[in-house]
Amino acid sequence: MARLVNSRSFIRNLLVFRECSVPKSINPKRTIMSTNFNYQQAVEELKSNPYFDKYSKKIAALQQTSPEEFLSRLETVDKSKKPPSPTKDLDSRPEVCRVGEPKPASTSFTKTKVLDDVLKIDLVEDKSPDEIKDLWLEYHKSKDAIAAVIPPEKFKIVLERGEKYQLFLLPLPRKQGYEFIVCQFAGNEVHFTPLISYQAHKENAPECLTIIYFPDLEENKGIVLMKGEFDKNVINAIEAQCLANQLHLYYGENNEKRTKLLERFTYDPQSFKHMDLIAEMETLTF
């Protein structure tokens, strides 16, 4: 498995969540600092309490003298009203990825994967591109993987940009905000790892998704097969597909705005703003 590079410019620009502010243009429903506590709703419920008028002066005084204690009490009351979730045990994936264990350090190079490792080319030589596409997508439906078939022209752009902009960040939507995922190109593979894991383990950070492109049929069939294997304990299939879609929007299209983000991150990290990625994410349609 390829190892993530330790880029000084990247490390200097790692996001410190608590120091970020959200521009007005960003959807307030999705912020980096996320919480299940709805302050405005809690205040409205407090005002509807039949005893609010009786204690309103004391409440106002507490807000002025000790806003932290006031907020803490509101949150405590809010939590006590919520019944335990019946689906709590159905999805054990964390809302924000944990750091995870580092990969074993290795000095050996991994052999580049070829299509024959997954699908015997001899068995599809007499198939049409559409038939191969159907077989490829159907094969991966029952696995912890995503799959796609892309035209050679797009694959060429992806490879060229991947060589030029080898390292980048992608925002992953969560229920209460966004989590940043590091992606890095290594030949015909792209490796993804949560930013928090990269901060802790650098090049030995465990991956949550690995995308592999197979150009074996590019010349004869005019298609390039793609598969993405993900760690279901960290992300699910929808989140893996979201990362793959973003990857192709940044690396597979000649979009001026997204290209500038790639350039700033790679060549001018001092001017790179992580919130620009979220602003762009808010405008995307897949």
Radius of gyration: 23 Å
How large is the share of residues in beta strands?
5-15%
**What's the mean pLDDT score?**
77
Helix content: 40-55%
Q: Whole-Å distance between the termini?
A: 29 Å
If helices are DSSP runs of H or I spanning 4 or more residues, what is the number of helices?
11
* Backbone structural class: alpha+beta
- What does the oligomeric state look like here? single chain
Region (Disordered): 75-105
Subcellular location: Mitochondrion
InterPro entries: ATP11 (IPR010591)
GO cellular component, one term: mitochondrion
Describe what you observe in this structure.
The chain is of the alpha+beta class and 286 residues long. It folds into two domains: 42-75, no CATH class; 118-284, no CATH class. Helices cover 41% and strands 14% of the residues. The protein has a six-stranded antiparallel beta sheet, sandwiched between helices. Helix 2 (39-47) crosses helix 4 (67-81). The chain is elongated and about 85 Å long. The relative contact order is 0.17.
Quickly list its features.
286 residues; alpha+beta; 2 domains; six-stranded antiparallel β-sheet; 11 helices; elongated
